[in-house]
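User: I'll paste a sequence; please echo it back and then give the predicted structure.

Assistant: Echoing your sequence first, then the prediction.
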Amino acid sequence: MSQHRLTGLTPGGKVDVLLGWDSPMSWFFLVIEPESDEPLYSNLYEQHPESLDLAHFQKVLERFGIKNINLSPGHESGLYERLQSDRVANK
């Protein structure tokens, strides 16, 4: 399982963002957590977490106002490409 831990900047402050490829489940995951409370978002809260892709997670980031993390293909951060590489390598 790959794990990318990032700090998301929201209008309400910083949140921890964990995303990656879950090789046993064969799906991408995303968790957004404030510093001390329950997660604001987890892919496990979704009805069909196995069907979610990085484009969906980009919309989730936008919904929470997280603009400093971008999962779009070709973005200068290269995060999309790293996650796809994790999937291909089944990390």
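The CA atoms of residues 1 and 22 lie 5 Å apart. Helices lie at 54-63, 79-89.
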